[in-house]
């Protein structure tokens, strides 16, 4: 039985409970039925029988009294009780016959004897006496009537004794049925209490105790004793659960071993990464100093050569010198951009809450010269949300996006529109322009470092700007993408979206944009 499953145990227990409850209900129902039968016998038969016998006795006594009074007084009004009592007599006899139908034969025989004695008294004494008195013959001997009526009275007494005995037996049966009902209820309650105690004991031994042991062993494993095997005796479900937990423990132990090995490898890789970062730092230092200095010298000496010996050089030499100076300058710009790109996320500054409108304003001020030169118009909402991050980096995002919008312009003056709206826990910023646009197939390529869609002669630059924007936005917990779903009817220009996390409850963003004026415009 110790290996029985909980389902089997619960099924057996359910059957036992149903059987016990069914037996208890049947026993109580039988006891109540017996009680009702005894009560019905007492109230519907025995009691009314006694009452009807008394009513019959009263009716006969009234008849005997009426006849005797009429015989003595010769007054007709004394016959009225005699006549009325005859009706009551017949009613009482009829009721007694109905009540005694299911009782003893002796009681029915006593009733028959009463009826015969009364009829004999009436025929041999009452009716002749009444007739004689009416004729004026007063010689009737009342003693003859007394003898006849005493025989009827004796039969009535016997009937009364029968009725009382029946009532006493019915009362005893009622008391016995009530006692049996009480005893049945007590036994039923005792059985139910015993069943509850037994169920509690079985529940504790079959479920609670094994689960407690399983819990203790699981806590041992949770406390770090991963080598401890989880084994519990008990019902099938609990042993299966223990086996599953032990399988999970074994898997965790294996994963822990793998994790430790991986951590060891990560420690090695971390050391390599630190060494690589140190080398990268060294390279950044060299690039910012040792590499730029020779480039500056190349550019300076080439320019000096052009100034001093320009009149002695032909046009090709002058052109070659220009190529060298331009290459040196572009190399310096590329090195500076690479340094800035590599520093994003490594040399972290202070993160503060800043008004994104101030970031747009600063970006436009930084681009004041080119904005004024091209006649560009930059629109942005008067009120924009607070964002959290490094101010120089976030300013660089807006500056690169607005600068690209101005750089890659069409024939008409650039028009840049900056908007923002909330999307759940992010602010979605949009920078849209009316420039030459970007084909959808290049939506990912434009964010890759050094990827250019146009030649250096057509549009200057190093191809790092959008890659820098992606790195900065992702460093601040957002994402950036090119909108490729714009309406084909209005497909001119470029629309770029990027998100930044919401830092707090913000006021509603103004829907009407205003023109951002560059410094000195």
Describe the structure.
The strands form two sheets. The protein has a six-stranded mixed sheet. A two-stranded antiparallel sheet has the order 1-3. It has three domains: 6-207, Up-down Bundle (Four Helix Bundle (Hemerythrin (Met), subunit A)), CATH 1.20.120; 236-312; 348-516, Heat Shock Protein 90, CATH 3.30.565. Helix 1 packs antiparallel against helix 2 and helix 7 (356-366) packs across helix 9 (391-407). The chain has helices at 6-73, 79-99, 105-135, 142-222, 236-309, 315-343, 356-366, 368-374, 391-407, 465-475; strands spanning 352-355, 377-381, 386-389, 415-423, 426-432, 480-482, 495-501, 513-516. It has ten helices and eight strands. It is of the alpha+beta class and 521 residues long. The chain crosses the membrane at residues 180-203. It catalyses: ATP + protein L-histidine = ADP + protein N-phospho-L-histidine. GO terms for molecular function: phosphorelay sensor kinase activity. It is found in: Cell membrane.
């Amino acid at each position: 039985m110790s290996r029985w499953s909980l389902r089997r145990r619960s099924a057996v227990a359910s059957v036992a409970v149903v059987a016990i409850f069914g037996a208890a209900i049947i026993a109580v129902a039988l006891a109540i039925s017996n009680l009702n039968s005894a009560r019905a016998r007492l109230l519907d038969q025995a009691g009314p029988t006694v009452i009807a016998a008394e009513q019959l006795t009263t009716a006969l006594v009234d008849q005997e009294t009426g006849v005797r009074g009429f015989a003595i007084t010769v007054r007709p009004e004394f016959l009225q009780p005699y006549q009325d009592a005859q009706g009551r007599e017949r009613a009482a006899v009829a009721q007694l016959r109905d009540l005694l139908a299911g009782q003893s034969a002796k009681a029915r025989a006593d009733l028959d004897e009463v009826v015969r004695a009364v009829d004999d008294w009436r025929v041999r004494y009452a009716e002749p006496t009444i007739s004689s008195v009416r004729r004026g013959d007063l010689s009737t001997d009342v003693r003859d009537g007394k003898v006849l009526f005493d025989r009827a009275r004796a039969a009535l007494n016997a009937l009364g004794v029968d009725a009382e005995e029946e009532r006493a037996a019915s009362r005893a049966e009622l008391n016995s049925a009530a006692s049996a009902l009480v005893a049945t209820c007590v036994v039923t309650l005792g059985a139910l209490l015993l069943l509850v105690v037994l169920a509690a004991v079985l529940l504790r031994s079959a479920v609670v105790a094994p689960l407690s042991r399983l819990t203790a062993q699981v806590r041992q494993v949770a406390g770090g004793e991963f080598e401890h095997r989880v084994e519990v005796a008990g019902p099938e479900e609990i042993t299966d659960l223990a086996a599953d937990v032990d399988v999970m423990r074994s898997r965790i132990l294996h994963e822990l071993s793998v994790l430790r090995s991986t951590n060891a490898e990560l420690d090695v890789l971390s050391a390599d990464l630190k060494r690589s970062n140190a080398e990268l730092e060294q390279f950044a230092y060299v690039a910012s100093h040792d590499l730029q200095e020779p480039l500056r010298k190349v550019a300076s000496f080439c320019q000096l050569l052009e100034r001093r010996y320009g009149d002695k050089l032909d046009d090709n030499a002058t052109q070659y010198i220009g190529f060298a100076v331009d290459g040196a300058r572009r190399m310096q710009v590329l090195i500076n951009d690479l340094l800035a790109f590599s520093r994003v996320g490594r040399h972290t500054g202070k993160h503060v809450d800043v008004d994104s409108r101030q970031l747009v304003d600063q970006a436009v001020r930084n681009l004041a010269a080119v904005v004024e030169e091209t006649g560009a118009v930059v629109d942005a909402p008067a009120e924009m949300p607070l964002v959290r991050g490094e101010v120089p980096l976030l300013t660089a995002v807006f500056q690169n996006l607005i600068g690209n919008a101005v750089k890659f312009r069409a024939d008409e003056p650039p028009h840049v529109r900056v908007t923002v709206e909330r999307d759940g826990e992010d602010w979605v910023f949009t920078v849209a322009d009316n420039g030459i646009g970007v084909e959808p197939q290049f939506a990912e390529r434009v964010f890759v470092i050094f990827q250019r869609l146009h030649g250096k002669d057509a549009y200057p630059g190093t191809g790092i700007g959008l890659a820098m924007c992606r790195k900065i936005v992702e460093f601040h917990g957002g994402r950036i993408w090119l909108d490729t779903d714009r309406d084909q009817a209005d497909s001119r220009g470029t629309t770029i979206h990027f998100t930044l996390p919401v830092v707090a409850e913000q006021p509603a963003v103004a829907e009407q944009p205003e023109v951002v004026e560059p410094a000195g415009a």
